[in-house]
Amino acid sequence: MNTTDRTPGHFNRLARVLHWTMAVMILAMLFIGVTMMASLHLRPTLVDIHRPLGITIGLLVLLRLYNRLRHPPPPLPADLPWWQALAAKASHWLLYALMLAMPLLGWSMLSAGGYPIVLWSGFNLPPIAPHSAALYTALRSAHSLLAYVLFATVLMHLGAALYHAWVRRDGVFESMAKK
Fold first, then answer.
1. What is the mean pLDDT of residues 143-147?
2. What is the 3-state secondary structure (H, E, C) of 48-113?
């Protein structure tokens, strides 16, 4: 079976691989970000991890969006209350927006601060925002605020997934977890 094939009631293989890979990456990024802000000793090393990992997440979310538009997700259970179906769809699009916004905000913030965006030795991204202390401050605040929003959204997503797995047992969790 190729990565675009999907058995009924399941996300395709590429969607599942991207979902779980990005879940690990995003959780790592959230904890790296918090530790970066709390530890002067670890900060330089963590920044060196945070930047390329953030850009990688930004690129993977574009691939994920492309895949989702080409291969729509399986339908939600017909007996799911309308407000839960609406919350599921809205939270998924919020997650996509945040996964895309966070790397762009980080890149813009570093550009505004005049910092190089080093992905690896010898390869830097070009600046995408003008050098400005005021813009840097605003973007840093936005990046921090949206990190909290992302963390809360991830927790709600995890809670909903466990609700579907353990309480409803309706196949929603399995559609992403198993083939």
1. 95
2. HHHHHHHHHHHHHHHHHHHHHHHCCCCCCCCCCCHHHHHHHHHHHHHHHHHHHHHHHHHHHHHHHH
